[in-house]
């Protein structure tokens, strides 16, 4: 009996090579080889089309890919600029949340931060060097000075925490947490337009430093939780 031709498997043509992926790889190689830094301008769209022998749509698809990763931005009438260094070996994890409901967004990010920041504090307590402690204390002293003078110290608070992350000697802690803060910077700076947001956590930054300096991971975790618990309380209280 003759087999029905419709029952036979279909031999599909081989997919064409992903030109957009080739372009993103080529751009990443160019950024690395040219040693471009944040703020540097990338070649113009037409220049890339000619150099890579591809169409405008392919270039734009590659640009959109990098924009989604948060590593470049296009400024109308000016060009495309690098926001962060990139190479083929770089892993970027863009963050995106619906920010319509600010309270929910802050609580969601706090859930993730709690796990990462507690672990960062514990690792810092185990791995910190004497040099790390000098840097962390310098940032803490500046934070305390500004806080006492102005009643708030957002940038100095961030600098203190980044110094703690650096003391882990694992760059992913800083990169992940810094990216989270950057993504929601306009919300985390003064949530609900309250200058006193999380002000009660101020004393626990000194006790966190003491725990890291003492090489006590569990104490570092406990002090980090105290800070983040106050943050959570203020989110819930100030969003009523």
Automatic annotation (TrEMBL):
<dbReference type="Pfam" id="PF00392">
    <property type="entry name" value="GntR"/>
</dbReference>
<keyword id="KW-0804">Transcription</keyword>
<protein>
    <submittedName>
        <fullName>FadR family transcriptional regulator</fullName>
    </submittedName>
</protein>
<keyword id="KW-0614">Plasmid</keyword>
<keyword id="KW-0238">DNA-binding</keyword>
<dbReference type="InterPro" id="IPR011711">
    <property type="entry name" value="GntR_C"/>
</dbReference>
<dbReference type="InterPro" id="IPR008920">
    <property type="entry name" value="TF_FadR/GntR_C"/>
</dbReference>
<dbReference type="InterPro" id="IPR000524">
    <property type="entry name" value="Tscrpt_reg_HTH_GntR"/>
</dbReference>
<dbReference type="InterPro" id="IPR036388">
    <property type="entry name" value="WH-like_DNA-bd_sf"/>
</dbReference>
<dbReference type="Pfam" id="PF07729">
    <property type="entry name" value="FCD"/>
</dbReference>
<dbReference type="InterPro" id="IPR036390">
    <property type="entry name" value="WH_DNA-bd_sf"/>
</dbReference>
<feature type="domain" description="HTH gntR-type">
    <location>
        <begin position="17"/>
        <end position="85"/>
    </location>
</feature>
<keyword id="KW-0805">Transcription regulation</keyword>
């Amino acid at each position: 009996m003759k087999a029905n031709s419709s029952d036979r498997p279909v031999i599909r043509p081989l997919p064409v090579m992903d030109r957009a992926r080739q372009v993103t790889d080529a751009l990443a190689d160019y950024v690395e080889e040219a040693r471009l830094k944040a703020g540097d301008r990338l070649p113009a769209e037409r220049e890339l089309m000619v150099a890579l022998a591809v169409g405008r749509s392919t270039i734009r698809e590659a640009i959109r890919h990098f924009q989604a990763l948060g590593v470049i931005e296009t400024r109308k009438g000016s060009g495309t600029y690098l926001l962060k260094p990139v190479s083929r070996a770089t892993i970027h994890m863009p963050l995106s949340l619906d920010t319509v409901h600010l309270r929910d967004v802050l609580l969601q990010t706090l859930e993730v931060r709690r796990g990462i920041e507690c672990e960062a504090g514990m690792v810092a307590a185990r791995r910190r060097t004497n040099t790390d402690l000098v840097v962390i204390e310098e940032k803490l002293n500046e934070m305390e000075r500004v806080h006492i003078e102005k009643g708030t110290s957002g940038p100095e608070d961030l600098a203190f925490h980044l110094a703690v992350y650096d003391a882990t000697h694992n760059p992913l802690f800083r990169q992940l947490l810094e990216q989270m803060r950057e993504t929601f910077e306009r919300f985390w700076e003064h949530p609900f337009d309250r200058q006193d947001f999380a002000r009660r956590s101020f004393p626990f930054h000194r006790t966190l430093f003491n725990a890291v300096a003492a090489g006590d991971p569990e104490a570092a975790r406990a002090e980090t939780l105290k800070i983040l618990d106050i943050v959570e309380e203020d989110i819930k209280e100030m969003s009523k």
